[in-house]
Design a protein that fits this description.
Blueprint (H helix, E strand, L loop, with lengths): L6 H11 L23 E4 L5 H6 L6 H10 L3 H4 L5 E3 L9 E2 L2 E2 L4 H11 L8 E5 L1 H8 L7 H6 L8 E4 L7 H6 L2 H18 L1
Parallel strand pairs: 1-2, 1-5, 5-6
Antiparallel strand pairs: 3-4
């Protein structure tokens, strides 16, 4: 006898079929996310880039390599949906802007996030990567700048960890903020290991 899909499984099917903002996207919509109700770590970034859009695998680019390095996770663990949910603020590639990709389309958050996140009851840690995820999850608690928010990561622990985007375009930020690699990354690895153990 075939089992009925869970509420989360049904919602993911709906999200992957969504064409809500198709007219505003430069490429065919391809919502890219992974989630199972058992996940204990939730990775929330901005939106897929062109490489991820092409592969259909979240964080399958240089940013993802750096992120997995920060977390101390190998590919198999990072992509284990039973342990790690990956849900960006925008599910599809939003297009190019003046100095990088456009912001995530707002339709995803308005339409889906309030329905999706409650279906992940086992999440113990949210990685809020970039300003859009930090605005959503930290709200008024976040600082005026991303740098100040990340520098004050302890204020959001143990349930949330604000991070800069690991994009190669942010190399200058990492050079100007060596405290991130020296202080934040080791604490991040420790917390991720606790959550996934």
């Amino acid at each position: 006898m075939k089992r009925e899909p869970s509420e989360l499984e049904s919602l993911l099917v709906d999200i992957r079929a969504c064409r809500l903002c198709a007219a505003s996207l430069p490429l065919e919509p391809r919502p890219i996310l992974r989630a199972e109700a058992s996940a204990r770590l939730l990775v929330v970034g901005q939106a897929p880039g062109t490489l991820v859009h092409g592969s259909g695998i979240p964080w399958s680019d240089a940013s993802g390599m750096r992120l997995r390095g920060w977390l101390g996770l190998d590919r198999d663990t990072f992509y284990d949906q039973a342990r790690v949910a990956i849900v960006p603020m925008g599910f599809c590639y939003p297009g190019r802007g003046v100095s990088g990709d456009m912001p995530p389309r707002p339709e995803c958050s308005r339409t889906w996030h309030h329905r999706l996140f409650p279906l992940l009851p086992n999440v113990q840690l949210v990685l809020a990567i970039g300003q859009y995820a930090q605005a959503y999850f930290l709200g008024e608690r976040r600082r005026k700048t991303l740098t100040d928010t990340v520098a004050n990561w302890r204020e959001y622990a143990p349930t949330h960890f604000p991070l800069p985007h690991p994009s190669p375009r942010n190399t200058g930020w990492f050079k100007h903020n060596p405290w991130f690699d020296n202080e934040v990354v080791p604490a991040l690895r420790t917390r991720v290991a606790e959550v996934l153990s």
